[in-house]
Amino acid sequence: MGVPILNLRLGMHTVILAHVAFSVAYVVTVVMARLRTYDPALEEAALDLGASEYGAFFRVTLPYLAPGIAAAAMLAFTVSIEDYVITSLVAGVDSQTLPMAIYSLARRGVSPVLNAVSTLVVAGLGTVVLVSERLRSR
Question: Which of 21, 43, 75, 110 is deepest in the core (most CB within 10 A)?
Answer without folding.
Answer: 43
